[in-house]
């Protein structure tokens, strides 16, 4: 094998190790993640921040 082929093989091996390490880190991160907090007694309908205004009882207030 010439040096170019050896270099490509070393790079490919390193890439496989990096992918395996990243997958393990993602697995550990997901296992330790807390579930998202749920809003209690929140408003129904679309999120007002997303649409740029609040509407309650037909009255809209932009902010």
Q: What this model shows, in words?
A:
With 63 residues, this protein is an alpha+beta fold. It has a domain at 1-38. The protein is built from two helices and two strands, in the order ααββ. The protein has helices at residues 3-32, 48-51; strands at 53-56, 59-62. A two-stranded antiparallel sheet has the order 1-2. The model has no long low-confidence stretch (mean pLDDT 81).
Query: Into which percent range does the helicity of residues fall?
Result: 40-55%
Mean pLDDT: 81
- End-to-end separation in angstroms reads 68 Å
Classification by helices and strands? alpha+beta
State the strand order across the main sheet: 1-2
Short description:
With 63 residues, the chain is α+β, with helices and mostly antiparallel strands. The chain is 54% helix and 13% strand.
What key phrases describe this protein's structure?
63 residues; alpha+beta; two-stranded antiparallel sheet; 2 helices; 2 strands; 54% helix; 13% strand
Blueprint of the fold:
Layout: H1 3-32, H2 48-51, E1 53-56, E2 59-62
